[in-house]
Fold this sequence. Notes:
This protein has 304 residues and is of the alpha/beta class. The protein contains 11 helices and 9 strands.
Amino acid sequence: MPRPVRNPFHVRYLGSWIALGLLRLLSLIPMPVLFHVGSVLGDLLHAVVPSRRRVAERNLALCFPNDSADQIRDLARENIRNTARMLLYSGFVWWASESKLRGRVTVRNEAILDQVEQQGKGFILLAPHFLALELGGIFLSLRSPGVSVYQRTRNPVFDRAMFRARQRFGGTMYERKDDLRPMLKAIRGGKGCYYLPDQDPGPRRAVFAPFFGIPTATWPALGRISGMCRAPVLPCATYLLPRGAGFEIVIDEPLSGFPATTPDGDAAKMNETIERCVRRAPTQYFWVHKRFKTRPPGSPDVYD
Length: 304
């Protein structure tokens, strides 16, 4: 098999450059307008991409078993609308100036972050996979440029754009498969780390911990990083505000008793924290992803 082309300027990526240009144009449109356009686009996606709709509905039904079928359908519809809105906001996230970002983002409980930073030691921001998570890392780098882990995308045009956007205010990105020792050194030296943990790591690297009461494949790395760097972990969730008003980043108190004595205990504590963040805004989590794809040995596939 030939190796894939990674040069972003190769002619095969012309369509990607056109799409990137469209996002750049969308960044000039007021967010309240994009909010309503996103509602229409979301309803269109809800109708024409039934596979993602079914995944969202199945995830929500598993996590909110007391909700009726109509409530689950409504949650999934609004979740897909929010997904579309965030797609349209991507240009703003990637290219907005510092002043524009500050005008559209509020940070709740910022004093908690101030207090941790004043101690002069590194810390970890636990950033669940909410639709607006990328905005959180970029905005917080304005106040204290830190480090973060990312996963390279297959499309080099969008990979290049995201990488440049995430580092434009001084943050430093490390690819997940690269040597992460410089990142750990930075945390020990007093930097903050924006850490995105809650994707399915597959059976080889997972531990299973409850998430909404469901045994869920979970990355076990957060506790190890926190322990090695002696860094407190602060929950940090980023939410879309209603009607295109902007974004809100919510900082919570550092996790107590973390890391625990076992990877399973750390994973359970992390998932409990993420679940609490999700309950604040159930339609803003990344439900179109098969969060429960990897099952414990002998357990049935929940997406049949």
